[in-house]
Amino acid sequence: MTLCAVLPVATRETKMAMFGRNARSLRTWFQAAALLFLVLPFAPAQSLADDKLSLRLDWIPNGSHAPFFLAEQKGWFRKAGLDVTIEDGTGSVVTVQLVGAGQFDVGHANLSSLAIARGKGLPVISIAGFVRKSDMGVLVPAGSGWRTPKDLEGRKVAFTAGSLEGPFIDTFFGASRGKVELLSVDAAAKVSTYVSGSADAVVSSVPYVLPLVAAKRPSDGILFADSGLDLPGFGLFTTASTLTAKREAIKKLTNVITSAWVYVLDGHVDEAVDAIMKSRPQLSLNAAVLKNQVGQFEGYFYTEATRGRPFGVQSDVDWDRTVKVMENAGVLPRGSKPSDYFTNDLIDPAYFQTILR
To answer: Do both 236 and 320 map to the same domain?
Structure first.
């Protein structure tokens, strides 16, 4: 069916007037198009060309996540040509499994969990180490005088069997293992179990938990490292296949996060905490706790082998110790080497200056 419109008959005068208006409109259109043509090559095209990356955190936002949300708030991902989606986690072990299964491009987790998974055949690899000194330990009440695993004999210690500390409990407690009452609880319930007094001590990340319990149960930490368990802390990782497919994008992400950490530690902690708060307003996070966590984690960023080296760079020496510890604990097969677990190839220390321009 054809639709027809009935138009009034135009006189010569009206035709001329319409032509003049149309000509002026046409000139205006061409002028605008020409201006647009000149501007477009120099206008940002990021919204059309950003590389999409999905990133899974290890837990709900805390001080160790400061650079992620700061980079997001300040537009540093976009500036690097990245469109990054950040999802909160439910534990390092789960994050490693999800990234290893290809459900996320990159993960932030305790790298001890990565090493264990790698030893079981999951093709994951660390691309940056932030908490390079082992942060795992047992939190005990301040003033208790408990300083070694032996001091915990006869005490109730909360831990999570399926979490990263599980395989190292026997090694940590040694001869005292049979004299300690271990309470296996869900990871989300560990802190509350300890704060309520249902447990005398709790196994977790010391710099993460200390600020959380400071108001209700001031505590000290007995570090795993003091018992010879040299394990890596938190860092970035991906899979071999994802790194091959999205190498340039992941390299940019790695350097944005690494540079953001450098920025945070250079007197911008409050700014980073504010970014976390704005990103997750529904969680009712405590700004003072977040700031304290950043300060606590700062003491775990360097080992003797990484001191003086660029932020995020990992060490063969540190990983060699970790491999031996894990082999002795029976969680890694014999014969692996440090380079099986990490690479420093993506880190560019000069990148820090580019995001500040």
So the answer is: yes
129 and 144 fall within a common domain: no
For residue 58, give the nearest of 97, 102, 112, 94 by alpha carbon: 94
DSSP conformation letters of 283-318: G---HHHHHHHHHHHHTTS--TTTTTSPTT---HHH
Supply φ then ψ for residue 127, to 5 degrees: -115, -5
Contact 250, 243 (CB under 8 A): yes
Using DSSP, how many helices (H) and how many strands (E) does the chain show?
Answer: 15, 10
What pLDDT, on a 0 to 100 scale, did the predictor assign at position 356?
66
Q: How do beta strands 51-56 and 106-110 pair? A: parallel
Q: Which two tokens stand for residue 144?
A: 């208790």
Tens-place pLDDT, residues 235-248: 999 999 999 999 99
Split into its structural domains, the chain has a count of 2
Integer Cα distance of 18 and 16 in angstroms: 5
247-265 helix and 66-73 helix, angle to the nearest 10 degrees: 100
